[in-house]
Specification:
The complex is a heterodimer. By secondary structure, chain A is mainly α. Helices cover 68% and strands 0% of the residues of chain A. Classes of the chains: A mainly alpha, B mainly alpha.
Amino acid sequence: MAGRAVVGLGVGVYAWWATGLETFSAESTWAIVGAGAVAVVVGTWRRRMAGRQSPLDSTDRPEQRPGLGIWLGLLAVLVVWQMSAYVQEPREDHPTLSYLVNHLLDTHGARTVACAAWLVGAERLARGEAT
Amino acid sequence: MTRTITLAGFAVIGVALLSFQLWGMVTRRTLTLDGVVGLVVRRPVLRWLLVAGWLWLGWHVFVRVEL
Protein backbone atom coordinates (compact mmCIF):
# COMPACT_ATOMS: atom_id res chain seq x y z
CA MET A 1 0.00 0.00 0.00
CA ALA A 2 2.81 2.40 0.92
CA GLY A 3 4.64 1.32 -2.23
CA ARG A 4 1.64 2.23 -4.36
CA ALA A 5 1.41 5.63 -2.68
CA VAL A 6 5.07 6.29 -3.41
CA VAL A 7 4.67 5.23 -7.05
CA GLY A 8 1.53 7.34 -7.37
CA LEU A 9 3.30 10.35 -5.89
CA GLY A 10 6.25 9.81 -8.20
CA VAL A 11 4.00 9.58 -11.26
CA GLY A 12 2.20 12.75 -10.19
CA VAL A 13 5.40 14.71 -9.63
CA TYR A 14 6.81 13.50 -12.93
CA ALA A 15 3.57 14.41 -14.77
CA TRP A 16 3.71 17.89 -13.20
CA TRP A 17 7.29 18.38 -14.40
CA ALA A 18 6.76 16.88 -17.88
CA THR A 19 3.62 18.90 -18.63
CA GLY A 20 5.39 22.08 -17.55
CA LEU A 21 8.05 21.77 -20.26
CA GLU A 22 7.95 23.91 -23.36
CA THR A 23 5.60 22.28 -25.86
CA PHE A 24 6.76 21.28 -29.34
CA SER A 25 10.29 20.87 -27.93
CA ALA A 26 12.58 17.85 -28.09
CA GLU A 27 12.79 17.89 -24.28
CA SER A 28 9.02 17.67 -23.98
CA THR A 29 8.84 14.91 -26.59
CA TRP A 30 11.44 12.81 -24.77
CA ALA A 31 9.83 13.45 -21.39
CA ILE A 32 6.37 12.33 -22.52
CA VAL A 33 7.17 9.58 -25.03
CA GLY A 34 10.03 8.28 -22.86
CA ALA A 35 7.80 8.03 -19.80
CA GLY A 36 5.10 6.35 -21.88
CA ALA A 37 7.65 3.84 -23.17
CA VAL A 38 8.83 3.13 -19.61
CA ALA A 39 5.21 2.58 -18.55
CA VAL A 40 4.75 0.14 -21.45
CA VAL A 41 7.94 -1.73 -20.48
CA VAL A 42 6.75 -1.96 -16.87
CA GLY A 43 3.32 -3.18 -17.99
CA THR A 44 4.84 -5.79 -20.31
CA TRP A 45 7.19 -6.98 -17.56
CA ARG A 46 4.34 -7.29 -15.07
CA ARG A 47 2.29 -9.19 -17.63
CA ARG A 48 5.11 -11.67 -18.13
CA MET A 49 5.65 -12.01 -14.37
CA ALA A 50 1.96 -12.78 -13.95
CA GLY A 51 2.30 -15.35 -16.74
CA ARG A 52 -1.21 -15.15 -18.01
CA GLN A 53 -2.70 -14.96 -21.48
CA SER A 54 -6.12 -13.63 -20.68
CA PRO A 55 -6.50 -10.34 -18.82
CA LEU A 56 -9.91 -11.29 -17.51
CA ASP A 57 -9.99 -14.41 -15.42
CA SER A 58 -13.03 -13.59 -13.33
CA THR A 59 -16.40 -15.23 -13.79
CA ASP A 60 -17.88 -11.95 -15.02
CA ARG A 61 -16.71 -11.78 -18.63
CA PRO A 62 -17.93 -8.43 -19.95
CA GLU A 63 -16.19 -9.05 -23.26
CA GLN A 64 -18.65 -11.85 -23.99
CA ARG A 65 -21.68 -9.60 -23.89
CA PRO A 66 -23.30 -8.34 -27.12
CA GLY A 67 -22.86 -4.77 -28.29
CA LEU A 68 -19.52 -4.71 -30.09
CA GLY A 69 -21.24 -3.61 -33.31
CA ILE A 70 -22.87 -0.66 -31.56
CA TRP A 71 -19.52 0.43 -30.08
CA LEU A 72 -17.81 0.16 -33.47
CA GLY A 73 -20.69 2.01 -35.14
CA LEU A 74 -20.60 4.88 -32.64
CA LEU A 75 -16.81 5.12 -32.86
CA ALA A 76 -17.06 5.16 -36.67
CA VAL A 77 -19.56 8.03 -36.48
CA LEU A 78 -17.18 9.85 -34.12
CA VAL A 79 -14.28 9.38 -36.54
CA VAL A 80 -16.36 10.64 -39.49
CA TRP A 81 -17.53 13.68 -37.50
CA GLN A 82 -13.98 14.40 -36.34
CA MET A 83 -12.60 14.16 -39.88
CA SER A 84 -15.35 16.36 -41.30
CA ALA A 85 -14.38 19.04 -38.76
CA TYR A 86 -10.65 18.48 -39.31
CA VAL A 87 -10.73 19.16 -43.04
CA GLN A 88 -12.52 22.49 -42.60
CA GLU A 89 -11.14 25.86 -41.55
CA PRO A 90 -10.98 28.00 -39.51
CA ARG A 91 -10.51 25.79 -36.45
CA GLU A 92 -12.51 28.20 -34.29
CA ASP A 93 -15.60 27.44 -36.37
CA HIS A 94 -14.81 23.77 -36.87
CA PRO A 95 -13.37 22.52 -33.57
CA THR A 96 -11.85 19.05 -33.51
CA LEU A 97 -11.47 16.76 -30.51
CA SER A 98 -7.84 17.90 -30.16
CA TYR A 99 -8.96 21.52 -30.12
CA LEU A 100 -11.58 20.78 -27.46
CA VAL A 101 -9.17 18.73 -25.33
CA ASN A 102 -6.57 21.51 -25.51
CA HIS A 103 -9.11 23.93 -24.10
CA LEU A 104 -10.21 21.43 -21.47
CA LEU A 105 -6.61 20.92 -20.34
CA ASP A 106 -5.64 24.58 -20.34
CA THR A 107 -4.34 24.59 -16.75
CA HIS A 108 -1.15 22.95 -15.55
CA GLY A 109 -3.09 21.05 -12.89
CA ALA A 110 -5.52 19.57 -15.43
CA ARG A 111 -2.65 18.55 -17.73
CA THR A 112 -0.85 16.95 -14.78
CA VAL A 113 -3.88 14.82 -13.85
CA ALA A 114 -4.47 13.85 -17.48
CA CYS A 115 -0.80 12.96 -18.02
CA ALA A 116 -0.69 10.82 -14.87
CA ALA A 117 -3.86 9.02 -15.98
CA TRP A 118 -2.35 8.53 -19.44
CA LEU A 119 0.79 6.96 -17.94
CA VAL A 120 -1.26 4.61 -15.78
CA GLY A 121 -3.34 3.72 -18.85
CA ALA A 122 -0.20 2.94 -20.86
CA GLU A 123 1.01 0.56 -18.15
CA ARG A 124 -2.37 -1.15 -17.90
CA LEU A 125 -2.83 -1.57 -21.64
CA ALA A 126 0.65 -3.07 -21.98
CA ARG A 127 -0.13 -5.33 -19.01
CA GLY A 128 -3.18 -6.51 -20.93
CA GLU A 129 -5.86 -5.06 -18.73
CA ALA A 130 -8.81 -2.95 -19.74
CA THR A 131 -8.37 0.53 -18.37
CA MET B 1 -20.83 23.35 -40.60
CA THR B 2 -20.84 26.05 -38.02
CA ARG B 3 -19.20 25.87 -34.63
CA THR B 4 -22.56 25.20 -32.97
CA ILE B 5 -23.42 22.32 -35.27
CA THR B 6 -19.97 20.79 -34.87
CA LEU B 7 -20.15 20.99 -31.08
CA ALA B 8 -23.72 19.66 -31.09
CA GLY B 9 -22.59 16.68 -33.15
CA PHE B 10 -19.80 15.86 -30.71
CA ALA B 11 -22.25 16.26 -27.82
CA VAL B 12 -24.79 13.88 -29.38
CA ILE B 13 -22.12 11.28 -30.10
CA GLY B 14 -20.70 11.70 -26.59
CA VAL B 15 -24.11 11.27 -24.99
CA ALA B 16 -24.76 8.17 -27.11
CA LEU B 17 -21.42 6.64 -26.09
CA LEU B 18 -21.95 7.50 -22.43
CA SER B 19 -25.52 6.18 -22.46
CA PHE B 20 -24.50 2.86 -23.97
CA GLN B 21 -21.66 2.60 -21.45
CA LEU B 22 -23.99 3.31 -18.51
CA TRP B 23 -26.58 0.88 -19.89
CA GLY B 24 -23.97 -1.85 -19.95
CA MET B 25 -22.73 -0.99 -16.45
CA VAL B 26 -26.22 -0.94 -14.94
CA THR B 27 -27.86 -3.88 -16.72
CA ARG B 28 -24.63 -5.91 -17.16
CA ARG B 29 -26.18 -7.26 -20.36
CA THR B 30 -24.30 -5.30 -23.02
CA LEU B 31 -20.65 -4.68 -23.72
CA THR B 32 -19.01 -1.80 -21.88
CA LEU B 33 -15.92 0.10 -23.01
CA ASP B 34 -13.97 -1.98 -20.51
CA GLY B 35 -15.15 -5.09 -22.34
CA VAL B 36 -14.23 -3.67 -25.74
CA VAL B 37 -10.71 -2.89 -24.51
CA GLY B 38 -10.61 -6.33 -22.91
CA LEU B 39 -11.37 -7.89 -26.31
CA VAL B 40 -8.61 -5.89 -27.96
CA VAL B 41 -5.86 -6.47 -25.39
CA ARG B 42 -6.33 -10.25 -25.51
CA ARG B 43 -4.92 -10.24 -29.05
CA PRO B 44 -1.19 -9.38 -29.08
CA VAL B 45 -1.20 -7.55 -32.43
CA LEU B 46 -4.25 -5.48 -31.53
CA ARG B 47 -2.86 -4.84 -28.05
CA TRP B 48 0.37 -3.44 -29.48
CA LEU B 49 -1.56 -1.34 -31.99
CA LEU B 50 -3.65 0.04 -29.12
CA VAL B 51 -0.53 0.72 -27.04
CA ALA B 52 1.10 2.49 -30.01
CA GLY B 53 -2.03 4.58 -30.52
CA TRP B 54 -2.07 5.37 -26.81
CA LEU B 55 1.53 6.62 -26.95
CA TRP B 56 0.73 8.72 -30.00
CA LEU B 57 -2.27 10.18 -28.16
CA GLY B 58 -0.07 11.26 -25.24
CA TRP B 59 2.46 12.86 -27.57
CA HIS B 60 -0.34 14.62 -29.45
CA VAL B 61 -2.09 15.91 -26.33
CA PHE B 62 0.89 16.81 -24.12
CA VAL B 63 3.63 17.75 -26.60
CA ARG B 64 1.86 19.08 -29.67
CA VAL B 65 -0.35 21.52 -27.84
CA GLU B 66 -0.73 25.29 -28.18
CA LEU B 67 -0.68 26.76 -24.68
